[in-house]
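FIELD: query
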Amino acid sequence: MFLVRRRMLFAITGLLALLAASLALAFIPPHPQTRGGLLEVTSIDVGEGDSILLVTPQGRTLLIDAGGPTWGAGSQLDYGEDVVAPYLWNRGISHLDAVAISHGHSDHIGGMPAILKDFHPKELWIGLLPPSRALENLIAEAHALGITVVRHWKGDNFDLGGAKIEVLFPPQDEPVGVEPKNNDSMVLHVAYGATSVLLEGDAERAVERRIAALSHTHADLLKIGHHGSATSTTPEILQAVHPTFAVISVGYHNSFGLPKATVLERLRASGIHVYRTDLDGAVTFYLDGQTVTPALPPPD
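FIELD: result
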């Protein structure tokens, strides 16, 4: 400040430096903190809800669900704006290639409107559409923002940035209920090389048993259905998938008593290494086509 009062050049130089820094922050996108040549699967800690980030080997990004209040209860917290978005921004991710909603319950889609506005994905993936004001509003918001809404059904099989994605549920002829339910969940199998992950949403035993009847459901990593509730993680799905790792997205000291002790015991008896967002926070797994590596040390 002493020099500025005497030399205009210092003042002009300082102002230009501030202007250049401001323009850089505003218009130069940050470099995403990702690992090339790997399939990344991160279960973001959104409490008693779900939000899964996938980064493909070629750097494409897919967010499945965005957390939200349980049972649609009011909350001062916007899970999309206040939880998921800061995590993505901290990773240097300013844009998403696609977002998907597993099903219409608020703890999965409540934070998605903010994600659509903040990250401008190219596509919004949806499956079943039971009557729901929240689903209708989300689709209307996507259309208003110029986001393409894509319906995905069992049998869809496509490549996303070097990762092979297969939709295992729902089939196109699946009956639609009068309101969203857990078994509406879009179930995705995502593979890279010889490694893969099964993403269940909140699928319960009826859907798990249908998926287990398929001949190609093996996955190294299983995203546990319905937050570790006793309605999911059936012996049939564990035997069919035969995962090495499992991750449970669940709220700390939640009022539902999740994950259930019977589910944890079933996983333990199957020799599966279990990670939980309530104990471990956000959990990341790296699939290199041959092996799966958790970003945390193995749990006890």
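FIELD: remark
The longest strand covers residues 163-169.
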